[in-house]
Amino acid sequence: MAARASPATSLSRRRMCGIPAVRVRLLRAVLCVMCVLCGGVRAGLYTDSDQVAILTPDNVDAVLFQSPSAALLEFYASWCGHCIAFSPAWKQLALDIKEWKLAVKLAAIDCADELNRGVCVRFGIKGYPSLRFFPAFSSNDSTGEDISGFSRDVPSLRHLIIDKLESHKTPTPPACPPLEQTSAREIDSYVENSGGQNLALVFEGNDSYVGREVILDLLQYENIMVRRVLRSEEELVSRLGVTDFPSVYLYNTHTNFTRLPVLREARAFYSYALQRLPGVVREGKPRPEESDFIRNHTEEQWRPFNKTRVYMSDLESALHYSLRVELASHSIISGEDLTALRRYISVLDKYFPGRPPVKNALKAVNDWLQKQEGTSINYSDFRAALNTRSTDSYLPKVERWVGCQGSKQHFRGYPCAMWTLFHTLTVQALETKSRDPQEVLQAMRRYVSSFFGCRPCAVHFEDMALESMNRVISLRFAVLWLWSHHNQVNARLAGELSEDPHFPKVQWPPPDLCPACHSLKPSGEHTWVQEEVLSFLKNYYSAQHLLHDFLSDDITPPLTERHKAREAAPQEDQEAGEEVEEDEAVEEVDGAPQDEKSASEALPRKPSIVGLRLRQFREDIVDLDSFIVQHYKAKTPTKRQDTEDEVEPRSWNVRRTKRDLAAQEAEGLALEMEAGPEPYGQSRSTRWMSVLSVGFSRLDVSLCVMLYLLSTLCIVAMCLYFRVKRRQRRTKVALP
């Protein structure tokens, strides 16, 4: 074995000897640094998009000590199976109580990461997962309150947090509203001094957490106060005539109060309805005003739209922006980016439910792109192929948002339209029974990764895709996967500066848009009815349900000058229009337009009920195929800038030209026969020859005549031959 190994060893030594010693040392040093760095960036169980504060030695003190909010911290090890199983509940809890973060925040630290081991030892952590509660304004030497035997489900963890906040010692988190029950005297005093602020009363049983949960859900909203009233508070219960627990009432005075209408009597429905009351806004956000929709003369005017429908204008605008604006930043597209572009254009060609010219344009671009054999393309070539325009193929160069328009120019728009586009594509793939359930999702993933301008957004989407996109095994699942992860993004971005105050990010579809999509678990927790959600999505994004209002009229190419003149000139009657059409056809067949004035002087007019002009018959042979090639050349992609004039469209259909030329010839001859005297001195035999030779040259007619004569001679010869044979047969029979 040693003998066999020695040649390889000596060979490797000879190769290493060929490298200078300095370079070898440098290579080893680089490898060591890479190993250390790789160990230092160990991937934990949580990311920034999970609404969980990820602690490190650098930020642990700032989050836990002398903080105005309380914190619930999970110590975990990324290799621990129980920690991995617990992480989905922790993520779900973080999203569920996102609105509570001013009072309490969720955090996590990975003790398996070597960089964090000192922190875990400092807090005396010996098992995973472990939970510690840190009250607001905890001292620097605090190790937190250990929570043992905690449940692994979200409702129990949520109730645990509420219990810790209620038992919180002074000083309490300044942002935390009062969670205790209220009384009639307190309500009356508040109404006198509230100054018209909304007041919502949650009536519930003594052991219910709904009221406190709704109070914390409205923690970050202004111009509303939520208080809980127990069933035992008889004065308020009798004053308002409350019979259902839980239920919510909007209270103004002793005699002015109304019950909050909701689909289900549960926390999620109460919070959603209260957050959308008139005048209720997120803290720090400007109050929505109708004047926000009044634009100045430099802005596009607001377009009233139906919130329950999808607009084709948004979809076409998304295509225009992605293909002509975002892609334009990549002068050379190659490698994985080129693969991403091919997949993106392919799914658009297959599933985009657009107008025929737009679909034809996408198909033409897809055909062009698939024919490119190199490993890279120039965007200028792609743009030229995209901008090639004909009568039935064109993508408008318009950015016109309707359902995706924001109250300000920087709100919504393109990101909203891209989400709408990909939702529509997943539904169309389901309707057309695509074979690959991940086709649209993977195309979206690659496009976002390669081209989407918001790079943090692209990173977050890639994180979601890595987590679960490979589990999509059906077209139905693909539609629901995109829907559920869009809701995750909405939950993460709710309350951010990018949120439009007029269109807050909610879990979609909301109860008022799809009541059947929402239900309750036996525990009272909100749950989605996925079959109803799928049915709603299929209808909402179906091609038949799209609205075509506000579409660009730039879809029709500009007319030629001759067509513009024809469109503008008044036509006296239908016959006059037919005369113009026939004259133009004759001019183009002859090869060049004729001078109408000289023609009218040279050629005498004859009476005709249809007003057609006489024309002299020529002996030229008209090659229709050559005519079509010359006059209807195919429009091929050429390099040109967006500002250049587009290709002139066809005047009429080519096949109609082939069919109609012979008919026009025959019609003109028939009219000449009705005219009586022969113009131009033609003889009657010449005229009949012209009638017989409609559509044929004289050579063709001559060959036909010769064939007719030869056929006649053959028939006569055969008749003579059989007569002779018949006589010979009779002679033989008569012999003795």
From TrEMBL:
GO cellular component, one term: extracellular space
Enzymatic reactions: 2 R'C(R)SH + O2 = R'C(R)S-S(R)CR' + H2O2
Cofactor dependence: FAD
Top-level taxon: Eukaryota
Region annotated Disordered, chain positions: 562-604
Pfam families: Evr1_Alr, FAD_SOX, QSOX_Trx1, Thioredoxin
Stretches assigned to the ERV/ALR sulfhydryl oxidase domain: 407-508
Compartment(s) of residence: Secreted
Keyword Secreted annotated: yes
Keyword list, A-Z: Disulfide bond, FAD, Flavoprotein, Glycoprotein, Membrane, Oxidoreductase, Secreted, Signal, Transmembrane, Transmembrane helix
UniProt-listed Enzyme Commission number(s): 1.8.3.2
Enzyme class: oxidoreductase
Signal peptide positions on this chain: none
Limits of the Thioredoxin domain: 46-167
Ranges annotated as biased composition (Acidic residues): 570-590
GO function terms (MF aspect): flavin-dependent sulfhydryl oxidase activity; protein disulfide isomerase activity
Protein's GO biological process: protein folding
Annotated function: Catalyzes the oxidation of sulfhydryl groups in peptide and protein thiols to disulfides with the reduction of oxygen to hydrogen peroxide. Plays a role in disulfide bond formation in a variety of extracellular proteins. In fibroblasts, required for normal incorporation of laminin into the extracellular matrix, and thereby for normal cell-cell adhesion and cell migration.
Family statement drawn from the similarity comment of this UniProt entry: Belongs to the quiescin-sulfhydryl oxidase (QSOX) family.
Name recorded for this polypeptide: Sulfhydryl oxidase
Protein's organism: Ictalurus punctatus
